[in-house]
Design brief:
Elements lengths: L1 H24 L5 H22 L7 H29 L1 H7 L3 H13 L5 H17 L14 H29 L2 H19 L12 H24 L2 H8 L2 H11 L9 H19 L3
Helix pairs in contact: 1-9, 1-10, 1-11, 2-3, 2-8, 2-9, 3-4, 3-7, 3-8, 4-6, 4-11, 5-7, 5-10, 6-10, 6-12, 7-9, 8-9, 10-12, 11-12
Length: about 290
């Protein structure tokens, strides 16, 4: 159980690092370019981790379910989120998806029969408030051709709904079929197949310098997904979601430390981090 909490918290930081790197890559690459590169570098890594941990085989039905989750989450959901990052900035995009844990918890109650206590509701609410304070104002201008803040916000809302549903779907699938890392690999493979058939990487000469950012982002987010999938198989959705949902605050901190960004930590970010920590504690205590 303790390992599940550690992995969920680590996933929140790895997502943050990946988001900041994607923002840097977006100065020369499109959201689809970033998506393709993240899957190209992430899929072999997840496959290697699955083999290293010696996970058992998954049935054909399980592979089909994980592939469907991947098509929804890693193709459509991630494409929308990368669009939000490119148009709003990493911290501002993070705030858009902050309600995901609350929506996921509600879905878990309805679909999986998991209990949801008053303390968990309070904790998840505090987390959402904390990340809202941390990134209430847009931190970046649109980097894509024809992009806008409105388009970024709409893309962020779409990714929020998708991420909320797939968080619960992963919890269910890992319980039904096991092998969460192998499942993540199947999900990545399905998404990679779709984007490979629908998009061709062809950045300009100057944009090739941004590929390294996208590559590193792909490695970071693959490790985050591995941690996320495993955590969701070990602990309840509400608790895993609360820890993972710290990533918007983590993104603000990571962005302030990254030399290619102009984001700075202010007083409201410290307050937001405190609220998020209190929210996580409340959520975990609500389990007892």
């Amino acid at each position: 159980m303790v390992v599940g909490y550690i992995l969920a918290y680590a996933a929140g930081w790895l997502f943050a690092v990946s988001d900041v790197l994607v923002r840097g890559a977006s100065k020369g690459l499109s959201p689809r370019d970033n998506l393709l590169l993240s899957l190209v570098y992430g899929t072999p890594l997840l496959a290697a981790l699955s083999l290293a941990f010696g996970e058992g085989a998954i049935s054909l039905e399980g592979l089909a379910v994980y592939s469907a989750i991947g098509a929804l989450h890693f193709y459509l959901g991630r494409l929308l989120f990368y669009t939000a990052v490119a148009n709003l900035g990493s911290a501002s995009a993070a705030i858009i998806v902050s309600p995901s844990p609350i929506i996921a918890s509600i879905l878990a109650v309805a679909l999986l029969g998991e209990p949801l206590t008053l303390w968990q509701v309070l904790g998840l609410t505090l987390v959402a408030v904390g990340v809202y304070i941390a990134a209430a104002e847009p931190t970046g201008k649109p980097l894509t051709a024809g992009g806008s803040k409105a388009a970024g916000a709409l893309a962020g809302v779409g990714s929020t709904l998708i991420f909320s549903f797939t968080m619960v779907a992963v919890r269910w699938a890992s319980g039904e079929y096991g092998s969460p890392l192998l499942g993540a690999t199947a999900s990545y493979t399905a998404a990679l197949a779709i984007v490979s058939l629908t998009h061709r990487l062809n950045p300009g000469r100057e944009a090739w310098g941004k590929v390294r950012y996208a590559a590193l982002a792909g490695v970071a987010v693959a490790l985050a997904q591995a941690s996320r999938y495993t955590a969701l198989s070990l602990i309840p959705v509400a608790e895993a979601a609360a820890l993972i949902s710290l990533f918007p605050v983590n993104t603000v901190i990571a962005a302030s430390l990254a030399p290619w960004t102009e984001e700075k930590i202010r007083g409201r970010h410290i307050i937001a981090a405190g609220l998020a920590v209190v929210g996580v504690v409340a959520t975990i205590l609500g389990r007892s």
